[in-house]
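Any chance you'd type out a single protein's sequence alongside its tokenized fold?
>
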Amino acid sequence: MTALRLSAFAAIGLLAALQWASLLTDPPTLRLLGIVAVATLLGWALGRIGSGSDPESRSRPSTRWPRALATVALVAIATTGALLLLGVPLATLSPSGWDRLAAGVDDGLAGLGGSFDYPFGGTGEWARLLLVATIVPLTIAAAILTFRPGRDPARVPIAGLIVLVAAFAIPAVARPTAAPLLWGGALLVPIVVWLWGGRVRTAAALALVGGFGVAAVPVASGLAAGSSAVDYESWALPGVERGITFDWEPSYGPIDWPRTGRVLFRVHAERPSFWRVDVLDEFYADGWRRSGAGGEAAPAEPGPTVGPVSDPDRTVSAWFSIRDLVSPLLISPGTPLAFDGVDGSDRDRDGTTHVDEQPLRAGESYSVTAWAPDPQPSVLRAASRRYRRPLRSYTRLALAEDASLESIAAPAHLDLPLFGHQRGVERARRRLAETAYGRVARLAEQLTADASDGYGAALAISNHLRRSYDYDERPPSRRLPLRAFLLRDEIGYCQQFSGAMALMLRMVGVPARVATGFAPGTPLANGRGYEVTDLDAHSWVEVYFNGIGWLPFDPTPPTAVAPDDVRGAAAFGVAGDRGGGERGSKASSEQADAAPVQRPDGGVDPPVPPLGVLAALAAVVVGVPPLRSLRHRRLAPAEAAEREAEELRRVLRATGWAREGSATLLIAEDRLRRARHREAASYVRRFRDRLYGAEPGARPTLAERRSARRDLAAGNGFRDRLRLLAAMPPGAPLRGKRRS
């Protein structure tokens, strides 16, 4: 019988492994089959430990403890082997590698959030691994429940069968097969072998198996028709919402989009940085936008074909793991040079990189090498005393003549002289004075009057904005928002601060543009990276330096974005301030000046498919009681009667009908009859006659037991009904503890 059950175990496990493999593209089928083989070997070994043990020896401490220790050792070895076969790195299974294991599991869970189709084709290895990892605990648990030492080999291990069938059913429900009848028939054969081996003893057993087979036909036909009962396309893990998409065009109005601290991505990098996504290179009438040309390449700006790319002092590498973000643009710690892990991308001249096909989604990951130098202030001053003519596109402005809608629709185009060039300066001043931004231009000239280089001009404007304006996420809406911010309202968030600084820099001839993306985020506990949330969305200024490229400046006050942990003095426009403190999680959570408008793809997905929940509950309610009833019928009559009598005593004591003890069945019967619980009283009388009558009669049937339970529950509240159901469960009495 044990050999037949072991064969049935291997057969059901094989079917389950094939079902799990169907959830993935390029599935590790051999690895999954290997996991089933490990669980089968575990069952064989556990069966060998308990073989030859009679009931008395199984209860002796001298034999029980060695069997328990051997069981624990075998289970530990089998579990480790199964995880290694699955693909879990060996180093992560030791205590020293648990941090890596937790980070991998976290990334994998993120990759399984949101919307995806089966077979899952995500590139995240941890996401693919976790999607099929459930087969390990299910098969190992089934082996333990079925073949554990000390159990009676004559009894059918129903619990082990249920767990193993669940290992088959979970992937089968998630991705309905095209041939459900064949799969169902293949599964039914080893179940019959498991339950009865070569002997089917009762008509009830045949009826149960036949009933399940008949009931499966219409369900399988419906699945084969192409209308899945489970909406697996919109499936998500519990509590995981769909990804957030950002619109990086500024609105300059009050922040009214939701921000909940959802983790968008994790990045592993040598140093913190602004994580750049998009560039706004054109000022048109009332604000910054991305030009149709995607910017222009600056002289000697590093890129895939221009500029040095191997300088370790000027390049950085980072690895991004996407979680709750949907983005058609790649994220980079600077001007991107090369990507790895992305199927196809298209890089604009300003470094903005588009994904060729599907946008980035949860579970995907990639690495990037970027141009991100960190020069000393003296180098920056020398590199910005005089700019060359090809940079004139980055001092070009389209300014409204006034605040009318007509003027905003048709602004005046100005090409302003580059810093370090005197020719055309007076004419530029007159033209600026004629626009609605005349006073803004005068403010820019006043702030940079003492600056002898572009770096000094950037410092002067950045420091003025930080010290003289207040951070506020609800500035009033204006037709010319940056002019109103500088001259009237004096409050705003990162969109106002970065937009105003870039505007004033262009007015004095310094090449500047607005960059959008994310602030550094919160350092991970293991110190190996940063976690970026929707609270970290941000915008800043990029200033060009000859021979170096674009460098970030952040004019937003430090009450909104803590400055001390991003690259050097250039990043914040504070001369010589290279930071030294470490920012805590509170400072990170205060980075609420999210530049883009968040546009969630949808609401919260249901934790699990609703029909899947109903199907699981139906399987438990309908399937478990008949199986327990069959198992109870196969017990020896004396043992079955003993269990039923012991259950009756517990129920009578728990419900208060026999407070004096188990010898008062007559009193309990009388109380029940006077309370008009006739079915329950009749059930007690049948037991009393059997136990204490002169001529013991047949024990009560399970149908009479069911009627007694319903009678006892009548008139009780919901809590009492649940308590009674737990004490007297459907199908058969609980096993209970053996009396010595």
